[in-house]
Amino acid sequence: MMDVTPLASLMPGQAGVIAELHGDDSLRVRLMEMGLIRGETVHVLKYAPLGDPVELDIAGYHLSIRKGDAQRILVSPTGQPTR
Amino acid sequence: MLTRAAPTHAPGPKRVLALAGNPNSGKTTLFNGLTGLRQKVGNYPGVTVERKVGSLVVDGSQWDILDLPGTYSLTARSPEEAIARDILLGDMADTPRPDLVVVVVDASNLNRNLYLATQVLDTGVPTILAFNMMDVVQAAGDEIDIDALSERLGAPAVATVANRRDGIGELTAALARHTGDAQNRTRWTMPDPALAPVARVAQELRTAGVARPEASDGEAARLLGVDGSRERIERYGGAQLASIVQSARSGLLEAGIDPTTLEAEARYRWIRAVTTATTRIHHERVATRSDRIDGVLTHRVFGPAAFLLLMVLVFEAIFAWAGIPMAWIDAAVSAAADAVAGALPSGALTSLLTDGIISGVGSVVIFLPQILLLFFFIGLLEDTGYMARVAFMMDQTMRRVGLHGRAFIPLLSSFACAIPGIMATRTIESPKDRLVTTLVAPLMTCSARLPVYTLLIAAFLPGGPQAKALAMTGLYALGVVSAIAVAFVLKRTMLKSETPALILELPPYKRPNFRSVALNMWDRARMFLQRAGTVILSVSIVLWFLSYYPSLPAADVAAFDAQRPGASAATLAEIGAAEASARTRASFAGRLGRFIEPVVRPLGYDWRIGIGLLSSFAAREVFVGAMGTVYSVGDADEQSESLHGRLREATWDDGPNAGQPIYTLPTAVGLLVFYVFALQCVSTIAVMWRETNSWRWPAFAWAYMAALAYAGAWVARTFTAWIT
Ligand SMILES: Nc1nc2c(ncn2[C@@H]2O[C@H](COP(=O)(O)OP(=O)(O)O)[C@@H](O)[C@H]2O)c(=O)[nH]1
């Protein structure tokens, strides 16, 4: 098993490959319909001025979700390791 | 080529074309391009979801074009998305299934847009694909083989650049050429262990006759996906279907398949395979111009600063710039009233025309500049993509209250006027959140309260200009704090609901399309005039009736007339004002004022303030005019020294305090607080009624705000009396 870490723990500029999605069904369906599916690479672009929500790049477009929800998306980081 | 000789359909009844697509795909721009000004905006029956229909004639055949709400998939969550889904599936009462659907695909964001496109194709509805934003694709150096994609997807396709009106001709040609048939083919496949359980559910849907054969697999997968589809399951087939769904779910789970992720993963796998074969898209991330703009506009420091600056500008516009045309409208309305009054003999009819109808219509039209300006800015912010960033930045703050980032703009707009604010709540997805925002919006201090505040503060509050400005600020702050508090309470009691999840697309910044912005402003203005206008006009007429009848006894009129001959102009004005005052006293409104005096007495108000409160039910600023009438000041406005003087001199007619001044400092403070809270505005009530489709919510808003106003005024008065 590769090392997985919550998406919310990535710093801006880091990326990861989606491994698992947790949380309630309806949220998971919505996220997946927006393209957050297993095997897809997701970049963390930035956090909002007050620290939450987070802005992601997924399949070439920008999507914003709350940190609490990003906490339940597990990714295996690509590139530089997370701190 | 288009051949006129062989139309594929006999020219017959109008056919319906529906436009579907993801939000931000350019659907609205394409709709405007196809229909121009030939469009109507209304509501779907029973819900406040906007229904936009336009018309188009292609090759002599008539099309009604229906602009469906934007949606990312057929798994609907918001009322908007449910409408789009129901129409596409032919499940919508009163709306036949469209004859043809154009799915607008944002080609610069292909895979995600094809998710909805393939779902729509799977429903078996005849479809044309419009690959929009092809300019963006080209600018990025990407290539899309549209013919190959069209072949794989099994539907005709055209390339468009909607904001430049490129490809509209090709689209209408494809429309004319379309045979009205759909190509039936397999567009995605489920993993083998899933086939049997899904087929069971699909079979049941077909037997129950609720899904077309082609659409049944997709619908089955979606029913299985979310445990919460109960409501739809009930609508489709009730208990039997529910138990089949339940056993299929457990079948899938046993086979190690997550029913929730089933459709999305399988469908995306298929889409990825298709687009890999038919496109050349660069995948490395390059910082675009939009990214650089965003770097500033959502920057930790500059972002909020820029936002604040922008809000100051919007505020300034709605407050100050709008004041100029509002003054014109005001002048035009008075001029019209004077002209009518001059041309007709004085009497009930003239009074009805001038004081009832003309001033009633005037009180509606006067809001138009504010509404137009606000929707100009909102349209601009939406169209450029900035509005999504506002929600992004404000979400953290709004969530503390329990609301979505999108609720911020409507509340802010309500500082100018609650009417456009309430109309702007339509961008909020969750119905309960929309309702909470609508219910608290009138607590934000709108510009109509300003004349009342100005009058009372200037006349009664001690201290210099600084102290008075501070008092004004305090009143604004009281409004904001109470709006937040009420929203907080409502979200946890009556309208209890989770803070909705934030899944917000941040589209690239775009140059605004002023045509779309102008069309949007025009829609809002028309909607406001039609809907609010009728209600406000009727209420104005009722209020006129109450204050005009019964007329003054003939003997009294004669007594006033007897004083007139030979009087100077100034005295004449005074006599006229005194007569008006006497008439008010004798009217139903005057009697009502006396009747409610016991109710307002604990707040220190006499019947005259009672009339002021009653008459300002039509609109708050009427209070100033009403005070002018009952204290018989010829020409009252909030700065008039004579009105200030009259109010200060006013004394009780009777009762224990007879002869003492009515307006003491505590009473004035109480009255100010009353105006902070009370929902004294028919226009707001009318709009609230229209937007919520029921009398219950405006009645509730009125009642809770009246209770707050009464209690608040009493507390403020008692407290002020105690400290002074
Ligand atoms: N570059 C480009 N921009 C477009 C195109 N079509 C629409 N737009 C812009 O994209 C934005 C969103 O369009 P809109 O019609 O409001 O999208 P909707 O949310 O799908 O209704 C607007 O700023 C449009 O001017 C296109 O083909 N190319």
How does this model look, in words?
The complex is a heterodimer of chains A (83) and B (724). In chain A, a hairpin with a 2-residue loop joins β4 (54-58) and β5. Chain A contains two helices and six strands, in the order ββαβββαβ. Chain A has one domain (5-77): SH3 type barrels, CATH 2.30.30.90. Chain A is an alpha+beta fold. Chain A has helices at residues 25-33, 67-70, and strands at 5-6, 15-21, 41-47, 54-58, 61-65, 73-78. Chain B has 724 residues and is α/β, with parallel strands linked by helices. Chain B folds into four domains: 14-176, P-loop containing nucleotide triphosphate hydrolases (Rossmann fold), CATH 3.40.50; 192-258; 302-447 and 464-491, no CATH class; 533-723, no CATH class. In chain B, 62% of the residues lie in helices and 7% in strands. In chain B, β2 and β3 form a beta hairpin. In chain B, α3 crosses α11 and α8 crosses α11 (259-278). Chain B is elongated. The model of chain B is unreliable at 1-10 (pLDDT under 50). Classes of the chains: A alpha+beta (83), B alpha/beta (724). The A-B interface holds A 21, 25-35, 37-38, 43, 46, 48-53, 55, 57, 59-66, 69 and B 72-73, 75, 77, 108-109, 111-112, 115, 225-228, 260-261, 264-265, 268, 281, 283, 285, 298-301, 303-304, 388, 392-393, 395-397, 501-508. The complex binds guanosine-5'-diphosphate (GDP). Guanosine-5'-diphosphate is lined by residues 21, 23-29, 70, 132-133, 135-136, 161-163, 383, 510, 513 of chain B.
Sum this structure up briefly.
Chain A has 83 residues and is an alpha+beta fold.
Determine the strand fraction of chain A and express it as a percent band.
Answer: 35-45%
Tell me the structural class of chain B: alpha/beta
Largest sheet of chain A: 6 strands, antiparallel
CATH superfamily of chain A: Ferrous iron transport protein A (FeoA)
Report the major sheet of chain B. 7 strands, mixed
- Enumerate the distinct ligands: guanosine-5'-diphosphate
How many DSSP helices of chain A? 2
